[in-house]
Amino acid sequence: MRLKTNISHLQGSIRVPGDKSISHRSIIFGSLAEGETQVYDILRGEDVLSTMQVFRDLGVEIEDKDGIITIQGVGMDGLKAPKKPLDMGNSGTSIRLISGVLAGADFEVEMFGDDSLSKRPMDRVTLPLTKMGAKISGQTERNLPPLHLKGSKNLTPIHYELPIASAQVKSALIFAALQAHGQSIIVEKECTRNHTEDMLHQFGGHLSVEGKKITVQGPQKLTGQKVVVPGDISSAAFWLVAGLIVPNARVELKNVGINETRTGILDVIRTMGGKLEITDIDPIAKSATLIVETSDLKGTEIGGALIPRLIDELPIIALLATQAEGVTVIKDAEELKVKETDRIQVVADALNSMGADISPTADGMIINGKSSFHGAKINTFGDHRIGMMTAIAALLVKDGEVDLNRAEAINTSYPSFFDDLESLIHG
Ligand code: SPQ
Fold first, then answer.
1. How far is the CA of 248 from the centre of ligand 1 (A)?
2. Most buried one in 235, 297, 298, 352, CB count within 10 A?
3. In angstroms, rounded to a whole number, what is the distance separating the alpha carbons of residues 354 and 177?
4. Which one of the listed residues 57, 232, 312, 383 is annotated catalytic?
């Protein structure tokens, strides 16, 4: 796909699609609850559609009508053995969270995904879930998909300290702990996105959180709810960066989720000197309007507890850093290596081939700023965030063309991405 280049003006207001993490969890909680759940503004990206199809295959009635998803919850014990292997597509969130859900089922399943998902390690969930009494294994010692899982109705509670910062592992263990008899304690390495904890409360369940320690008492029953999904800050991130680095830009993003476990990018933009305004804050929906303008930026250091609060934004933050004055160092982000691609290497390769100066390191990148970009051929390797980052980088290209291979990967999380880009270009 030929990308738009040489853009010297970006203006307008958009509403980014629903938050992917919350959309997945709304389907999971709605399916496990008793009674009806209605979900408004869900993301209809391929990852969420995978989760939806998996729960249909597990016997849950899910209707998509008039823009509302209606789920007839089957309760904690109501899932049925599927007639075929469960297809998780490209979605790490689906396979890991659903492993935790099915750890407590009294049937066997096979779970598989696409080429990218088949390279991602699942030992991070198979290990603790095995300790709880599920039989779950995959390929090689890292337990790559396909996974074979045999659940147990007698799960043992767990006391587990996560060796990595991962909301997916934490969430898988919470779903399993909700089905075990007794008290489980899950201790995070760093605080990660807390949508599972928030939504458990919303669905009438309970857990307690003290710093990094989460205590869950099982078994529990959940009740169907109305869920309104806010816009995804991880999708908004592409326009935040575009609005800061394209000349003559002012971009307004309405109804963006601002849960504080996700807003690391806003902290980074401020530290780098970006012009950012936050208005219309809705403390209940945890959403706001974000406005950015073309800015003079300076390099910064990004690491430690900030990393889980912006892990998915690091590819687009790397692009932001290529336009800043001075050096930006990203560290403590080795988890980037096991996303849809090795996002340290793939980001550095893609941006360097357009003219950036990025050195990949073992746990991040060193980025020298003030680069000019030229045309190149870039491959997403099936990674949506690489595709969207390249499309924003291309806006700065003055000479040559940018050709993006496997651009359809963007449908994973943002099917209307190019429509929104057009509207800002013509705004
Ligand atoms: O679902 P998937 O493929 O793992 O998606 C990604 C993404 O970029 O969209 C990661 F590649 O987001 C993860 C995120 O990195 C979504 C997520 C969640 O919803 O719980 C948590 C993070 O992953 P992790 O490994 O840190 O738990």
1. 33
2. 235
3. 47
4. 312
How many angstroms separate the CA atoms of 171 and 177, rounded? 10
Domains by residue range for the chain, with CATH: 10-18+230-425 (3.65.10.10), 20-228 (3.65.10.10)
Whole-prediction pTM value?
0.98
Atom of ligand 1 minimally distant from the CA of 170:
27
The contacts of residue 408 (CB under 8 Å, 6+ apart) are none
pLDDT in tens, 58-83: 999 999 999 999 999 999 999 999 99
Rounded to the nearest 10 degrees, the angle between the axes of helix 233-245 and helix 314-322 is 10
Neighbours of 277 (CB within 10 A): 11
Contacts of residue 172, defined as CB under 8 A and 6 or more positions apart, other chains included, come to 96, 97, 99, 100, 103, 125, 128, 129
Residues framing ligand 1 (Cβ under 6 A) = 20-21, 47, 91-93, 166-168, 171, 192-193, 311-312, 335, 339-340, 385, 413
The single-letter code of the amino acid at 345 is Q
Supply the residue whose CA is at minimum distance from atom 25 of ligand 1.
166
Which residue CA neighbors atom 10 of ligand 1 most closely? 339
Residue 241's identity, in one-letter code, is V
The ligand 1 atom at the shortest distance from the C-alpha of residue 90 is 3
pLDDT tier at 427, thresholds 50, 70, 90: confident
CA distance 363 to 332: 5
Encode pLDDT of 182-239 as tens digits: 999 999 999 999 999 999 999 999 999 999 999 999 999 999 999 999 999 999 999 9
Q: Is 342 in the active site? A: no
Q: How many CB atoms lie within 10 A of CB 161?
A: 12
Distance 92 CA to ligand 1 centre (A): 6
Helix (H, G, I), strand (E, B) or coil at 300: coil
- Give the CA radius of gyration of the chain: 21
pLDDT of residue 250 exceeding 90, the answer is: yes
In the reported structure, the alpha carbon of residue 299 is separated from the centroid of ligand 1 by a whole-number distance in angstroms of: 26
**Burial category of 301 from C-beta neighbours within 10 Å (exposed 0-12, middle 13-18, buried 19 and up):** middle
What is the number of alpha carbons within 13 Å of residue 201 lying toward its C-beta? 7
Dist. CA 228 → ligand 1 center (Å): 21
Q: Which of ligand 1's atoms lies nearest the C-alpha of 308?
A: 26
Structure tokens at 96: 């890991």
How many angstroms does the Cα of residue 390 sit away from the middle of ligand 1? 20
